[in-house]
Amino acid sequence: MQSNHHKILIESIRRLLRRDATTHLVKIVDKTHVADLAEVFRSLSLSHQRKLFDMISDTEQKGLLFSELDEDTLMGFVEEMELDDLVEILDHMPTDDVADLIGRLPEDKSASILEKMKKEGSEEVEGLLRYEDDTAGGIMVPDFIALRENITSRKAIESLQKEYMDVEMPFYLYVVDEYGKLVGVSSLRQLVVVRPDTPLKDFMTTDIIAVKTDVDQEEVAKIVARYDILAVPVVDEYGKLIGIVTVDDIIDIIREEATEDILKMAGAGEEFVETQSVVRSTRIRLPWLFASCVGGIIAFIIIGRFEESLSKFIYLAAFIPVIMGMGGNIGTQSSTIVVRGLATGRLNIIDIWSVVFKELAIGLILGVIYGVLIGIVAQVRYDTGALAISVGVALICSMSVAALIGSLVPMLFARINVDPAVATGPLVTTAIDIISVFFYFTIATTLLGI
Amino acid sequence: MQSNHHKILIESIRRLLRRDATTHLVKIVDKTHVADLAEVFRSLSLSHQRKLFDMISDTEQKGLLFSELDEDTLMGFVEEMELDDLVEILDHMPTDDVADLIGRLPEDKSASILEKMKKEGSEEVEGLLRYEDDTAGGIMVPDFIALRENITSRKAIESLQKEYMDVEMPFYLYVVDEYGKLVGVSSLRQLVVVRPDTPLKDFMTTDIIAVKTDVDQEEVAKIVARYDILAVPVVDEYGKLIGIVTVDDIIDIIREEATEDILKMAGAGEEFVETQSVVRSTRIRLPWLFASCVGGIIAFIIIGRFEESLSKFIYLAAFIPVIMGMGGNIGTQSSTIVVRGLATGRLNIIDIWSVVFKELAIGLILGVIYGVLIGIVAQVRYDTGALAISVGVALICSMSVAALIGSLVPMLFARINVDPAVATGPLVTTAIDIISVFFYFTIATTLLGI
Asked: Which residue of B has its CA nearest to A303?
């Protein structure tokens, strides 16, 4: 469904909700894919969400909807629900999503839910809760097909028809030894194309791509993306197969990680916060702005020290914005290219010096171009050679240093295993602001002889 | 393979290449997955790339490597190759990648390649070249399974074993009518679980998610992500099935689109450019910086108009950096949240006013907090009430307006179907710089009565 259709869907559902047109709404809800319903849900008020939710007749559909909702919408909605209703729906959700949700609830609530979930799945959920949210263990599902290597293709197909009807993504058949250790992998397709009496071990692949439970989800996503696979098996420390991470979850992770990086780079937190909460958003952005506030105060102190020079050459002040702005922008360009390059694997930290050198060269060239341009503007306006030269040289220095810092800082952060995305945004920009102002006044006062 | 392993792999291959240790290298190349080789390739010089490439014995492996390489690395490499060698390798690549590559070559070269590719696939490639690169038609592959609705499950499995051995992603079986029109879809899994004599029409799904050839790739990616499917069928204007887009390509698209957005927001072009070319990178960044340069000149003109006031209150200049910096940073936060929110579907343009209002509220709150803080700093340093108030009020205005512009501009851009990512970065920042400076001096001169 394209975004325009979404817009129409949201608008009509809102209108119908306001009009309490239940019959009509039930019909729409019935015909709409849960993924689309989830999208609608997000832009409704809590009371409208509840109304719409009650119109879904099928518990399974309700479970699917929960899986599709983003965290904030879901948590807001779940907090107000009756425990019994909630547990019934959780029973219809994929284990990894249930574990995720329970892990985010207040402790007393999650304990009583786990207690209530008496079905076999509950142990699975408890199992998943042991792993960190953003590791292979936290995102895996325990639904996979595991067969022994002596089983023939025919037998394998039979067990698919019986035991494994519930498996979500039955494309890979994992082959395990007597201890459950992963020893091979085959595919549904291979099953279908080999002769029925061929044992798995004769056509399985033993060259297995697998991850341990503690591997970071970003790393898991990279592996799935790199090797073009639909699921990656997760093994414990003994090599025992305990779950799989499927490609549909990987897609969500790739989008989330990109979002995280983008928001971090802008100093706007790590995750989207609830769309309605101004207070939470404010709290998240506050500390990042503090960095730039401190930077501003430092710049203010620097300029204060040059007050006397400023009083002689008032027009020095007029060039502060252009020097800060150009430095800040080229610094952002450099750091963005490096941060994203590292995230996508396009840049490698072992190439640190060639990358930094390249950025420095770009900064220098662009600095010269714009330095000359702004120098000419200064000359035309004030007709003071020394000022024009000061402004031009300051711009060259500021832009080169900005490109240098912008590329070097994230590279260094990556090298010491700190997320390079954090290094950019306010931190780098603020550093560049301070340095630019300092350079500018030092160069200007020297050249103007004041 | 984790990034640390990659680092080791790259370093050892580089070392071996320098030492010309061919036997050792051939062994490593043989054992390494092409996806990993592609990663290594990227950080080698062209001559080393060529050396390493010649060590790959299997043409199919060479084709796979080509598919894995990023565009710049590939194009640099291909330009120097003999036509015959190239065509032989192209024969071993997926059709969509071949079409992509040929579409990017100079016209004369691509024409002679197409001529040489005499195999049946060549027409397929020519077919794909008709569609825009970043549409469903441009990214689809023509390898899919299409069966008629009366065929039984057993017959279907038989034809999988015969005709469709080459299909890359055989998870969905598309059901078509006599004109090739898509009428249903089934899965390999369903084939295996139903009774062998059941005709497809009895268990196929008729509720099909499909896209037309001209749908934007970003939209296709959203559909695959939303509905958690592994492939989406592509139909022509008559509903005839002509290709599928598979989830592995979708993953690449999602990463590319995120990268594009990030780079655009930073005003650093749309795509990563060849890692070695300083000149190309410079050229791409130049126009974006020009926006901020023009902004700087405007700010300079504004400040020039207040020169007289400045000469009376020199210390007004000292607060320029903090007011510009804070405004710029909160503007970037707001615009980033809106741009990414729109891209992920978390924000919808119909909510424009609630989003903008929320951002304005956040800007106002943060403006008051930091306005008071900086006002106090000003008061402590200069002990001039009017100055402290001017600085504080200017900061409040600047931050509120920055949040307003930062959220409103991308929303408006989205509404008129211009990519909102372009709206952020240098454009928004520059606008905010100008407005901040203007506010500051207007408020200060009014309050200080100069």
From this structure: B318
User: Of A130-144, A156-170, B296-310, which range is least confident?
Assistant: A156-170
Distance between CA A334 and CA A355 in Å, rounded? 10
The three-state secondary structure class of A296 is helix
Neighbours of B304 (CB within 10 A): 15
Taking a C-beta distance cutoff of 8 angstroms, is the pair A263, B346 a contact?
no
Beta strand segments in A203-240, E: 211-212, 231-235
Instruction: Determine phi and psi for A147, rounding to 5 degrees.
Output: -125, 160
Q: What does the DSSP assignment read for A331-360?
A: HHHHHHHHHHHHHHTSS-GGGHHHHHHHHH
pLDDT (tens digit per residue) in A55-95: 888 888 888 888 888 777 787 788 778 878 888 888 778 77
Q: Which of A83-92, A114-123, B90-99, B435-444 has the highest mean pLDDT?
A: B435-444
Task: Retrieve residue A163's tokens.
Answer: 């035991």
CA–CA gap between residue A49 and residue A62 (Å, rounded) = 12
Residue B422: predicted pLDDT: 77
Query: How high does pLDDT run on average in chain A?
Result: 84
Kindly report the pTM of this predicted structure: 0.76
The answer to whether B369 contacts A286, with C-beta atoms less than 8 Å apart, is yes
d(CA B225, CA B40): 30
Q: Is B361 on the interface with A (CB under 8 A)?
A: yes
User: Is B372 part of the contact surface with chain A (CB cutoff 8 Å)?
Assistant: no
Out of A165, A262, A328, name the one closest to residue B328 (CB).
A328
The answer to whether A146 and A174 are in contact (CB under 8 A) is yes
Chain A residue with minimum CA distance to B258:
A258
Overall CATH class of domain B146-263:
alpha beta
Question: Tell me, what amino acid is at A48?
Answer: H
For A239, counting Cβ atoms within 10 Å of its Cβ (0-12 exposed, 13-18 middle, 19+ buried), the class is middle
Contacts of B278 in chain A (CB under 8 A): 358, 361-362, 365
- Quick one: chain B helix, strand, coil %, rounded to 5? 70, 10, 25
B226 touches chain A (CB under 8 A): yes
Q: What is the pLDDT of residue A1?
A: 44
The answer to whether residue A449 scores a pLDDT higher than 90 is: no
**Which phi and psi angles does A83 have, rounded to 5°?**
-60, -45
ipTM: 0.76
pLDDT for residue B1 = 44
Q: Please, which pLDDT band fits residue A359 given cuts at 50, 70 and 90?
A: very high
Domain residue ranges in chain A:
3-134, 145-263, 278-448
Q: How far apart are CA B122 and CA B142, in angstroms?
A: 12
Q: Do domains B146-263 and B278-448 have the same CATH topology?
A: no
Count CA atoms closer than 13 A to B131's CA, side-chain side.
28
How many CB atoms within 10 Å of residue A421? Answer: 26
Q: What is the architecture of the domain spanning A3-134?
A: Alpha Horseshoe (1.25)
* Domain B3-139 superfamily per CATH: MgtE N-terminal domain-like (1.25.60.10)
Query: Considering the domain A145-263, what is its CATH architecture?
Result: Roll (3.10)
Cross-strand partners of A174:
A146, A185
Sheet of B182-187, strands arranged across:
B146-148, B172-176, B182-187
CATH of span B278-448: 1.10.357.20
